[in-house]
Amino acid sequence: SGCSARDAGARPSLTALAAASLTEAFREAAARYDAADVRLSFGGSQALAAQVEQGVPADVVATADEPTMARLRSAGLVDTPRPLAANRLVIVVPRGNPRGIAAASDLARPGLAVVLAAPQVPAGRYTALALARAGVRVTPRSLEESVRGVTTKVGLGEADAGIAYASDVAADAAHLASVPLPQAPLARYLVATTRASRQPAAARDLVDFLTSAAGRRLLAARGFAPAVTPPVSPPVTAPVPR
Amino acid sequence: MSSWHAPGEPATGTRVAADTSPPVLPPVLRATLRTAYLDLHLDLAGGERVALVGPNGAGKTTVLRVLAGLGTALPGTRVVLDGTDVTAAPPPARRVGFVPHTAALFPHLTALGNVTYGLRSRGAGRRSAAAAGWDWLDRLGVAEVADRRAPELSAGQAQRVALARALAPRPRLLLLDEPLGALDAQTRTEVRRLLRVHLAAFDGACLLVTHDPVEAVTLADRIVVLEAGRVVQDGVPDEVTRRPRSRWVARLLGWNAWLGTTTREGLAVHGGHVLVAADPLPAGQPAIATVRPAAVAVHVGHPEGSPRNTWNGVVDEVTASGSRWRVHVAATPPVVAEVTPAAVRELALTEGRPVWVSVKATEVRVTPV
Amino acid sequence: MSSWHAPGEPATGTRVAADTSPPVLPPVLRATLRTAYLDLHLDLAGGERVALVGPNGAGKTTVLRVLAGLGTALPGTRVVLDGTDVTAAPPPARRVGFVPHTAALFPHLTALGNVTYGLRSRGAGRRSAAAAGWDWLDRLGVAEVADRRAPELSAGQAQRVALARALAPRPRLLLLDEPLGALDAQTRTEVRRLLRVHLAAFDGACLLVTHDPVEAVTLADRIVVLEAGRVVQDGVPDEVTRRPRSRWVARLLGWNAWLGTTTREGLAVHGGHVLVAADPLPAGQPAIATVRPAAVAVHVGHPEGSPRNTWNGVVDEVTASGSRWRVHVAATPPVVAEVTPAAVRELALTEGRPVWVSVKATEVRVTPV
Amino acid sequence: MTGRRAPLPLLVPAVLAVGFVTLPLAGLLVRAPWTALPALLTDPALLTALRLSLVCSSGALAASLALGVPLAWVLARTEFRGKPAVRALVLLPLVLPPVVGGVALLLAFGRAGLLGAPLAAVGITLPFTTAGAVMAETFVALPFLVLAVEGALGTLDRQHEEVAATLGAGPLRVFATVTLPLVAPGVAAGAALAWARALGEFGATVTFAGNLPGRTQTLPLAVYLALQDNPDAAVAASLLLLAVCALVLVALRRTWAVRR
Amino acid sequence: MTGRRAPLPLLVPAVLAVGFVTLPLAGLLVRAPWTALPALLTDPALLTALRLSLVCSSGALAASLALGVPLAWVLARTEFRGKPAVRALVLLPLVLPPVVGGVALLLAFGRAGLLGAPLAAVGITLPFTTAGAVMAETFVALPFLVLAVEGALGTLDRQHEEVAATLGAGPLRVFATVTLPLVAPGVAAGAALAWARALGEFGATVTFAGNLPGRTQTLPLAVYLALQDNPDAAVAASLLLLAVCALVLVALRRTWAVRR
Lengths: 242, 369, 369, 260, 260
Ligand SMILES: Nc1ncnc2c1ncn2[C@@H]1O[C@H](COP(=O)(O)OP(=O)(O)OP(=O)(O)O)[C@@H](O)[C@H]1O
Ligand SMILES: Nc1ncnc2c1ncn2[C@@H]1O[C@H](COP(=O)(O)OP(=O)(O)OP(=O)(O)O)[C@@H](O)[C@H]1O
Ligand SMILES: [Mg+2]
Ligand SMILES: [Mg+2]
Description:
heteropentamer, B: 10 helices, D: mainly alpha
């Protein structure tokens, strides 16, 4: 990233692991953050967790879901996590929404090429949940190994629609557009300092920055929703039969 | 030499064939090869068997390959088979049989499979091809190994199968490149006998490359001597062996041979010395003088008496040949003498030994070239 | 034969060397090879040059490889060099020079690089090695190509460099496997002369494999004849050539040779026929009868007159050898006659022709085996 | 020198090399959930993936043979300008990161791709189909085959083909009845390599063909996803894959033996 | 037959093969953001990744040579029981999905790994270090080298080595001064293949070494990451990779030419 090129000088050098969906936001944040020279490493939340478990030299880790962070916490590898942001799944369509997708129900249209994230990854779990709530049965063309796979295929026009994070759509506005998916649960992004960090103070300072108002603005600009302290999930409106 | 064969003139083939084999058949092959390396014209009549001989690198194999249409087509060649021009035709389109220096049997096929290959390729049915294949293997006396794969065959058997394979599709022109070269003395005899029988029965034309004079003499009714891509002699075996027109042929026969110009008493050898011959030719023409090594006497001192030709030199090499040993004497002109092992020991004829040689005029034969 | 060389007895080498080269040196090589295929004992004195001859597959190359320590060590072999047992020692630990059938120069090195290789390997400094290398190349007359890479050398030059390479580290035992085999007649002569000079100067022992009797006679002061892994004759050249103890050697010399049992008048050849000899041996012992092909006369009808030995057969093969052609007659016993090409034509001596042969008793030499 | 033991300076690195390769495989074995293994290995989803893997890799092998052998022949037997360029082209997939290869395939055969668009127009879509998976695997496997077969053809003695031609066989017949049988060992070795490579292919497949169980989810994809939430299953699947590979390599070794 | 044009039944599939490979690459070129290219290609992050790729692949090549050549020699020149097994072992990485290879490497050299644990105890950690990336790439590149070099050794005439031995050179000296120079072309070809494979390696690297810019994020990783938020950058990076590959292949072709 750009900062790695900049001369570190006396400033401490920190390494932050972040969920792939945070790429753009964190790059910008790192650029804005002056207290330290921040190196960023992106990947799937599980992959990042695995790396931490394997002793990757990182000071801060930000995951796209709670269970993964909980795993690290219980393993005593990270300090108490702090809510970073929330991300909402949206229906992602090619720019201009050629197939006129308006709601989750449209995804069930026959002949519509839909790609979803695989249930093994968090996005996939949320997707399944969302579709269940919407009461829509979708037969996807593919269960991508990551949200990236979804956006790539929609972006290249291989798929007519998919389900990805709002932030992912914002990242590639050139090719993508989004349709809201209210049934989707909020994905809660958490950030924490690692126990292995050599500069705990500096690491804590970075987390403070990311969770500060300034940090939130950056994240919001990238399509992230504000972090909500109590775990919320939109009310399941179950239609009561009469 | 090549002017000798200018396409205009009557075909050498037919001409020579005339004074040996009874019927004069129309030419099966008419080929003119004028490439960077080759410059010759060949006419072969039906049933004619021509031996192509010459030193290594003379172009023999190249000629065969051109006639078979193998390799990249060379400019300046023209090949006419049975009156049709096949110069541009690929090998399959020519009715030519080719047996390379090594038998080159298909290792993954049985002897029978090898022999039937040509027939099948030319569209014969499996059954009829097999029948014909058996027949050919039988004729060449290798029917009992019909089911063996090529690698399991002895050199002799392999060579026979290769012949059967080439003959089976009944080619009009048969090309054999040193067919017996790879065989040991024993098998060579047998196969040569077979070869003679089948070549006699063969109605197409046959061009046979060989290094063995006996093979040429016994198998062919015409010998074409090739040197550096040019024909230096072309005639019936008797003529070629009795009056070799090139030093190489003479050497092949083991003779001493010197090129030079005829004088009143014999031949002025290129390089100086004059050889006295009993029956000289009209003076002033290019000619070759040949002397049998056995007719050359070797002396340690200056020899006295009758021999008209005596000169001295240094023993250059001693080689064995049959029960005689050949003493090569470096002199002008260089000469080879054939003596007994006893003589070699008594005269201590080892390299570097100064000696005199003498040759009787009656032993010097002068032939125009 | 091999019992003849029981390790206990005095070394053949020294014994034979005694009646040829003046000083009797201690044996440099004492080797006993008793493997599945080989069964022989070899003793070589310092400065002794022994020619190892024999048919293909006799085991010559194998012997050389065992002595050099190449290939997997064979059980039942014992090699003693200068008194120290090196049977278990790897090649580098033996002071042996080896020149394989092909020169096998290192293609990636220059001629000089090849020659200095051994010296460098044995720890010589770059400069001193180069100096010695130049010296050797110079001695073998190839100094001018010192900087050429091996592939750019002619066969003759390559062979000389290979010799220089083998001689440079001053081995105690020099092994040459058909050193001149790959050369054409011309170069062969030159290299052979060089070889003789340097072998004479060489103080170690030299074992030389060859198929050329002349090479054996002119280069070695002792000839060991190997057949099927066993020594069948071992003696000075004169003895071996004059009284060949094996049919192979006789053949090599181009002679007729028949094994049999002596009778009062000559030799009862295995297979029946009795040959009458002018000076027979005491009856009842195994012996070999040899006759020079030139001494065999060929007739179309039953011959009249003096020759004591006459029998008939069928012409089996005709081969050229020098200016004479060799007519192989299938008969009991089979026999080879040397005749002129003229005779071949006049008598029409081609395969299958029935003929009579006659040999004068004075021409039949009987030797005990 | 044969038979004699190797000198230490060569033996040590050789042993290190073997160790370096063996240790990770040993790791898999040690880490393997032996007790749970039977259950894991009989998981129908896994077996589906295995079946699909075998189908796709075989398909890729077939395609590679059909396309690669003729190409190798052309490269080895004919002369034409730009031959080096073609050879380089064919080998590029060897060095292209599979994921990029997948993207490239999408750009070419995808719905919006160069050739994909017209194909889609006539109702043929390749991404997300088993055919697509086969294509992706062929893309990465082809170079191996071409490499091996062209090598074999290059070292083949020509005279058998020449004799066949003089016996009346046209180029095609010569190729089928003489050339192919003679280079069989080379083809076999190349085929084994290509098949193995296709079997292990991940990046190009997931990018071009996606990941749908029973349709495009090959064993490597299943392994990758299992890694996310069920490492044991992943290890089990890997072992399964390894076992299959081992079999391939035995075959490969056989053909080697033939060639030596 | 040389010089004559190829028969259609061979020419057609050959052309198809070339087309099949060319089209995707063409796709990349067409899709390439030519206007933005200069900017994208000069992005320091990308250049960092490229530099790291070159460093790591070269390191992997060096390691493969150091370990692989001796191993190839042992396989080709000595006899020992279990030789086929060893050969199969060394080739397994060829067929193992890279991701699984990465996992296996973690199980072996990871912090909790068989050898990793003791190493960690003495303060040596390999995962997530540049050294780790080199290891991962070596793991996948080694088989190519061993394959090529053993092949070359197998076809090498032994008598040069034998003569060298009789001239007093020990096995090691023979190897260094005779064997190696003679098989140089084979080694070169194998090295080019191994290097190329290492250059394109993704799965094993990301799994074992992670994705730390400037440390373990090689070009293929950067490409993969870029695919999400900036496909143009991804394509640009791919082209860069392709260009580098092309260079390798030209070198590779050269050594081929030498071998023919
Ligand atoms: N493949 C080749 N490439 C280049 N030159 C060749 C090739 N084959 C033959 N020549 C050259 O063409 C000439 C004729 O070769 P050719 O093999 O026809 O001679 P030859 O009479 O068959 O020799 P030999 O008696 O040794 O078979 C020689 O100068 C040879 O060097
Ligand atoms: N590599 C080998 N493998 C098996 N048998 C071999 C091998 N080399 C030689 N032999 C056998 O060992 C015997 C001796 O072979 P060797 O090469 O020593 O004979 P030779 O006297 O050198 O023959 P030539 O005169 O042809 O060189 C032969 O029977 C041969 O078949
Ligand atoms: Mg020839
Ligand atoms: Mg030998």
